[in-house]
Amino acid sequence: MRRVWSGPVLLLVAGLAVAAGQVVRSRPVAAAVLLLAFVLLAGLISPPVFPRSVGALEARRRSDVDGRPVVFWRPGCTYCLRLRIRLGRKATRLYWVDIWRDEAGAEVVRAANEGNETVPTLLVAGRPYTNPAPSWVREQVSSSGDR
């Protein structure tokens, strides 16, 4: 659980340090702007930005029933964040598995990526796809909704 929040917390601490340096130099506006930037970045890479994670076994079981893709991700991954943002509201139509919280999910990702934990990795109809284009994922989400 600590590893999930380490990136956002480090960004907040760094932001506070940078802002404090600006305050010491009598630049309160610059301090406020920089602190706001760090807070926004920390928020973007924090787990709440992503839909609620489920376990890998549960996600695969549900996917077998309704055909929705499964996304294996981890906090702090810029490619996962890009995918999440580009999917918009459609992101809630996928099953999201945080591989740092779910060892079975990490095993699926390692099996699909020659032992590496490369994310995002998607399972679509039981077949893995590593770091696919967000436009392709949107097509898969649309086609899975037709079933």
Note down, in words, how this protein is organized.
The protein has six helices and four strands. With 147 residues, it is α+β, with helices and mostly antiparallel strands. The protein has two domains: 2-48; 50-144, Glutaredoxin (3-Layer(aba) Sandwich). Strands 2-1-3-4 form a four-stranded mixed sheet. Helix 1 packs antiparallel against helix 2 (28-44) and helix 4 (78-87) crosses helix 6. 28% of the residues are buried.
Low-pLDDT segments, ≥5 res: none
Please tell me the total number of domains: 2
Sheet bearing the most strands, described?
4 strands, mixed
Strand percent estimate? 5-15%
Inertia-based shape: elongated
Concise summary:
The chain has 147 residues and is of the alpha+beta class.
Features:
four-stranded mixed β-sheet; 2 domains; 147 residues; 6 helices; Glutaredoxin; alpha+beta
Topology:
Blueprint lengths: L1 H23 L3 H17 L11 H11 L3 E4 L4 H10 L7 E4 L4 H10 L8 E4 L2 E4 L3 H11 L3
Parallel strand pairs: 1-2
Antiparallel strand pairs: 1-3, 3-4
